[in-house]
Each structure stands twice: as structure tokens, then as C-alpha cells.
């Protein structure tokens, strides 16, 4: 009985849906996290009677065909790249992006990672790094005797060095944009990688070319809405239960058939 296999695909799809939702809820407090959603497609159909096939020598046709579907499958889990709310932290090296851009991070293997997490630190030699110790690209070094570090909305990093009464420019932060942000590959550690689907990174200064500006002393929160996620979780649970009921009903029908014999 095909209903058993069709319902099993529905249970598998909703199981994957719950996994996506649980990951969103688990990352509600992750800086710069972008929520995912599961997308589904129906499977192949068995054409028992095709629409438009002739039913008589006079040319009459079937107005609607008879098709039996094979179930459903999960085809993608794209990220929703909407802007998250920003939260004041009062740390001078915390930076939030208001716009579509990504910070660029130099990975140990030579690749470039992209992130919305602007919780930066200083390494032992004063280099600006992320929470994992990876260098922010382009490299910026803050001297040990620097004070009053400021980061402008345009990404200019300045500080007072020693007893200087005028600030010194230490470097310039840049942002990367992508034609298809959902095509970025997640690698963990709040980092994304460029793919063929995302298109190449378009690097520009903050506040230019739609990359967005920067907010010092702020961090971007996850764009996860707890109420929406719980509602989606309940809907996925009910869909899973209904598919399980279909399997139970198909089993009872097969049992009744076997008893007739």
C-alpha cells in the first residue's frame, strides 16, 4: 500500500523541519545568527490517466487526470538574512552592521570567512581579531598604549596614542556584499563561506554601495522570533502526528484485508 511510503516521507520531512526549528531556538542568543527555514517539494507522480487523453472516437477528452503522488522531500534550508535588532554592550570593540554587509575574517587555511558577528578583541600583539582569534581583514593593529579607540560609521578606526592630544588613524574596516546571501555556506563559529551560488564578494567601505554603516558599542542579535518558532514547532509536530496516523490507518486497512482472506 503506497500510503505507508507516502506518509513516511512526510514524517521524514517534518523531522527535518523540527531539526531546523530547534537549531533556530538554540541560537536565539547567538550574535549575528540568521534563522533558517525548511523548504519542501512534492515528489514524482504516477500518471494513471493523463489530463487531455481522448475518451471516444469523437475526440472527447478527460478534463482532469488521475495522478497519485509519491510524497514530499526537503530541498533546502535557506537562511533568512533580515536585519536583527542591535543591543548596546558598552565595549569599544563591539561593532554592529546596519545593512547588508559582512565583516571579512582571515581563516588559518588562507580562505576568507564572512560574519555579522562584530564582537572583536585584541590579540597579544594588538591585532584586531574575532572571538576565535582569527584576524579581521583588512588587518588593523591597536598599539598597547592606545586609548579611546573609536570606530566611525564609515569604518575608520582611530585612537589616542600615548600622550597624544589628537587621534591617530589605525586602519579602515571594510564590508563585503553578495548578490545571493542565502547561497553562502555556513561553517560554524558565526562564519560563512563564499560559494558559486552566492556569487563573489563585493568589497566596499561601510556606508557605500548599500553595504550599510557601523555602530560602535553595539552587537547585532539573532533575527529569531521565539513566538514564531514555537508556532512553527507546534505546526510541524501536528503534521508529523497526522502522517503517523496515516501509517496507522493504512496498517489497519491492510490488516482488515488479510483477515478477509
TrEMBL record:
Q: Which Pfam families match?
A: Flg_bb_rod, Flg_bbr_C, LlgE_F_G_D1
* GO CC aspect terms: bacterial-type flagellum basal body, distal rod
Gene Ontology biological-process entries: bacterial-type flagellum-dependent swarming motility
The UniProt keyword set, sorted, is:
Bacterial flagellum, Cell projection, Cilium, Flagellum
- Where does it live in the cell? Bacterial flagellum basal body
Record domain Flagellar basal body rod protein N-terminal: where = 4-34
* InterPro entries given in the database record: Flag_bb_rod_N, Flagellar_basal_body_rod_CS, Flagellar_FlgE/F/G, Flg_bb/hook_C_dom, FlgE/F/G-like, FlgG_G_neg, LlgE_F_G-like_D1
The UniProt record lists the Flagellar hook protein FlgE/F/G-like D1 domain at 96-159
Q: Which domain of life does the protein's organism represent?
A: Bacteria
Task: Name all Flagellar basal-body/hook protein C-terminal domain ranges.
Answer: 216-260
The answer to whether the entry has keyword Kinase is no
- Mostly located where? other
Q: Which protein family is named in the record?
A: Belongs to the flagella basal body rod proteins family.
NCBIfam families listed in its UniProt record: FlgEFG_subfam (TIGR03506), flgG_G_neg (TIGR02488)
Q: What is the protein's quaternary organization?
A: The basal body constitutes a major portion of the flagellar organelle and consists of four rings (L,P,S, and M) mounted on a central rod. The rod consists of about 26 subunits of FlgG in the distal portion, and FlgB, FlgC and FlgF are thought to build up the proximal portion of the rod with about 6 subunits each.
Output this protein's name: Flagellar basal-body rod protein FlgG
Give the source species. Answer: Devosia chinhatensis
Q: Which gene encodes it?
A: flgG
Amino acid at each position: 500500500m503506497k500510503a505507508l511510503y507516502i506518509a513516511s516521507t512526510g514524517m521524514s520531512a517534518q523531522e527535518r523541519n523540527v531539526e531546523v526549528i530547534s537549531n533556530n531556538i538554540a541560537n536565539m542568543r547567538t550574535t549575528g545568527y540568521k534563522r533558517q527555514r525548511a523548504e519542501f517539494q512534492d515528489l514524482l507522480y504516477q500518471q494513471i490517466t493523463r489530463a487531455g487523453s481522448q475518451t471516444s472516437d469523437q475526440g472527447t477528452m478527460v478534463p482532469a487526470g488521475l495522478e497519485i503522488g509519491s510524497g514530499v522531500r526537503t530541498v533546502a534550508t535557506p537562511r533568512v538574512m533580515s536585519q536583527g535588532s542591535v543591543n548596546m554592550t558598552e565595549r569599544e570593540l563591539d561593532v554592529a552592521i546596519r545593512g547588508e554587509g559582512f565583516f571579512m575574517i582571515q581563516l588559518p587555511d588562507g580562505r576568507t570567512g564572512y560574519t555579522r558577528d562584530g564582537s572583536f578583541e585584541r590579540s597579544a600583539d594588538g591585532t584586531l581579531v574575532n572571538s576565535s582569534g582569527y584576524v579581521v581583514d583588512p588587518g588593523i593593529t591597536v598599539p598597547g598604549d592606545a586609548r579611546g579607540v573609536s570606530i566611525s560609521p564609515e569604518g575608520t578606526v582611530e585612537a589616542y596614542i600615548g600622550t597624544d592630544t589628537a587621534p591617530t588613524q589605525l586602519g579602515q574596516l571594510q564590508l563585503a556584499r553578495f548578490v545571493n546571501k542565502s547561497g553562502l555556506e555556513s561553517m560554524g563559529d558565526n562564519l560563512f563561506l563564499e560559494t558559486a551560488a552566492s556569487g563573489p564578494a563585493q568589497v566596499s567601505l561601510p556606508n557605500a554601495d548599500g553595504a550599510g554603516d557601523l555602530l560602535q558599542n553595539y552587537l547585532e542579535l539573532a533575527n529569531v522570533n521565539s513566538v514564531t518558532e514555537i508556532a512553527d514547532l507546534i505546526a510541524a509536530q501536528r503534521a508529523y502526528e497526522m502522517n503517523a496516523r496515516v501509517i496507522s490507518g493504512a496498517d489497519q486497512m491492510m490488516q482488515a484485508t488479510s483477515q478477509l482472506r
